[in-house]
Amino acid sequence: MSTSLLNAAPASDTSARRFRGKNKGKRRTRGGDTELAVIRLPLDVSRLDSRRRVEQLYSAMWSVKRALRRDARAAVDAYWAGDMRREMDTKAWRLELGLSREGMERRGYRHMERSRHLGQHVTKALVMHQADEVWESVRRHLFPDEGGRRFGRPKTGTWWDYTRIPGRARSHTTARKWETFRLHGTLAGHLAAYRHWDLAPAITTPEQAACLSPQTSVLAQPRRMPAPGRPRCVETGEVTAKGKPKTRAATWWDHTAPLIVVFNGGADSQRGDLLLPVRLPAGAGRWPWLVHFLNNSQTWHKIDLVRRRDASALGGWAYEAHLMVLAEGYASPATRARRAAAVELCRVGGIDGNVSSLSVVSFPDTFDPADGEVSSTRIELTDPELVALEKARRKERGRNVPSTALAAPPTQTSTRPRGASRSVPNDAKVPDSETSKSTYQAARGRRTRTEYPNRHTATTPSRLATASIGRSSPRPRPPPPRRKITAHGA
């Protein structure tokens, strides 16, 4: 094993400086009956500065994750190579190599401290959660599950597969403490800022908007959403001796305008907060869902920054905030009524999903054939649904031309024997390459020469007038002049 690996691994018995002691308070745990739900909030990165900062954040976090995975692979190889050390004391050997949650976190801190640019984009909180994510893959490799199976060695991965930056959960014991990515604003403030011009003036609250018909437009958000500024001051509710209301400096926790995701930036950054406006569904049909998850800010728990490939988005990536909410999943009134009616049927159902079909089977909950028959239903996609699915797949790949039109033009395959003449008989049929080329260009959306026969000559008004007449064939060139040959001495 290399000496650098041992030096990089944090030892458990080293006398390192501790900045604070162990937490003596009782650790807060979530109740057993507390449910969790995750919703996706699209983010607007149309501003060039915000988009560049998000791309730099992903680049920096990918550097951290790649370095941690490489260190983990080297430590895992050294762990399995040390047979004698594993037989003597397995736990001490793992701690010496830094194969623990704390060891991975210390490695991440060390990479960040030794780098000169990571502190401009990331924080130690992000590095810690990224190290915890790497440790989970290492733990599944070192320790077998109940069936005795292990995961493989942690792989380094690629840049294109790195799509998620884990954030830190909000503190529910200390007020106004939420590190990494935070969500500020209110749903009522978002409605007041981007309400649709056809919306009735009596609709002023999200609850009223949720009661509208699904065909009603509630919001009219611009294509490039502006980032709201942080409030400067707020009133405290007290009055001075002169009768003026007292004010204090405001923070993002006093923000009641449109919803926005805020990130403070790197530990050494001086560019201020990273502001990412949130884009909400505009139709009234989704507002009951929004009110269920976003109307109570006390249930917001954690945000992960996620990106996905999108050919139509600026930069080729679409960014989303995956918000974890301490609430049960949303179910519409129709869904709840349907579920209540299904319970009264006293039947048990099962679903078998296939690649192109879905089978649903139900039978009595008493498992007695006398109480009812077994009923099954098979759901398959129709032809219009398959066409729509294929269109969505092509759109996701950034292609708008069907695969049949993008096929290469047909070419002539030579069948002549070796040594035969290359001349073509008079009765042989040669494919029209110009027609094939024009068809291919038309399928690609290009203008062909047949559409604009005089595109190279019609450049001035006088030539345009001449070109509008058109010619059936090009003008023949005059023959070259003949040289006069005379005899010498004539």
- Please trace the helix and strand order, writing H or E for each element: HEHHHHHEEHHEEEEHEEHEEEHHH
Coarse shape: globular
Helix coverage percent: 25-40%
Instruction: Please tell me how large the radius of gyration is.
Output: 34 Å
Query: What is the structural class?
Result: alpha+beta
Output mean pLDDT: 80
Strand count, sense and barrel status of the largest sheet are: 4 strands, antiparallel
Number of strands: 12
Contiguous helical run count: 13
- In spatial order, strands of the major sheet run 1-9-8-2
Portion of residues in beta strands equals 5-15%
The separation of the N and C termini measures 103 Å
Task: Give the low-pLDDT segments.
Answer: 11-15, 400-416, 420-440, 448-472
List keywords for this structure.
alpha+beta; three-stranded antiparallel β-sheet; 13 helices; 14% strand; four-stranded antiparallel β-sheet
Question: What's a quick, concise take on this entry?
Answer:
With 490 residues, the chain is an alpha+beta fold.
Structure report:
With about 500 residues, this protein is of the alpha+beta class. Helix content is about 30%, strand content about 15%. Strands 1-9-8-2 form a four-stranded antiparallel β-sheet, with no helix packed on it. Strands 3-6-7 form a three-stranded antiparallel β-sheet, with helices on one face. The chain has a three-stranded antiparallel β-sheet with strand order 10-11-12, with no helix packed on it. Strand 10 and strand 11 form a beta hairpin. Helix 2 packs across helix 5 (about 100-115), helix 2 runs parallel beside helix 6 and helix 5 crosses helix 6. The protein starts with a helix and ends in a 21-residue tail after the last helix. Residues about 10-15, about 400-415, about 420-440 and about 450-470 have low confidence and may be disordered.
